[in-house]
UniProtKB/TrEMBL annotation:
Listed PROSITE patterns: RHODANESE_3
Superkingdom field: Eukaryota
Entries under PANTHER family matching the protein: RHODANESE-LIKE DOMAIN-CONTAINING PROTEIN 4, CHLOROPLASTIC (PTHR47377), RHODANESE-LIKE DOMAIN-CONTAINING PROTEIN 4A, CHLOROPLASTIC (PTHR47377:SF3)
Name of the protein in its database record: Rhodanese domain-containing protein
Natural source organism: Vicia faba
Domain named Rhodanese: residues: 80-142
InterPro entries: Rhodanese-like_dom, Rhodanese-like_dom_sf, STR4-like
Transmembrane portions of the chain: none
């Protein structure tokens, strides 16, 4: 009986999390999948002001472009409609969501998965977080994929 409780309390939740088609992934895992999987795309949900100040990741080396669609809480239906207009084959697309940190990215990942995307992943740390896109770019990404972000001393650790 104790073994059955363990399966229900630990095993099943772990399996559900592992196989779930929307969840957090590290920035480097997102980069690797963007590089290796032709059906993967990067969706930047930050507001225009943030994108203008920091720019978006450069994916030219991967022959991909970042898809910018600003997410505003309270306009989920309008957001989903705009995103679906930008992706012709959502049901076969794995989308990685980039936010400033990771505030709305998981909500957006779940929203997009439930609206037809094959898989949707929130990038842990977003652009500016501790292990986000900016943190990995200097050491892990080749120079053509690095943005010319302002010096890291301008960002909150």
């Amino acid at each position: 009986m104790c073994r059955d409780s363990f399966v229900y309390l630990v095993g099943i939740p772990l399996a559900e999390e592992y196989f779930r088609k929307y969840k957090f992934v590290s920035a480097i895992d997102a980069f690797r999948k963007l590089r290796d999987e032709p059906d993967s795309e990067l969706l930047d949900i930050r507001d225009r002001k943030n994108v203008k100040f920091l720019g978006s990741p450069n994916l030219m080396m991967l022959k991909k472009e970042v898809v910018p669609v600003e997410f505003k809480e309270g306009n989920e239906d309008g957001f989903v409609k705009k995103v679906l207009e930008r992706f012709e084959d959502a049901e076969n697309t794995v989308v990685f969501i980039l936010d400033s940190f990771d505030g709305n990215s998981m909500k957006v990942a779940e929203l997009l998965f439930k609206n037809g995307f094959k898989e949707a992943y929130a990038i842990k740390g977003g652009v500016r977080g501790q292990q986000g896109w900016m943190a990995i770019q200097d050491t892990l990404l080749p120079p053509p994929l690095q943005n010319k972000f302002p010096p890291s001393s301008l960002f909150i650790p």
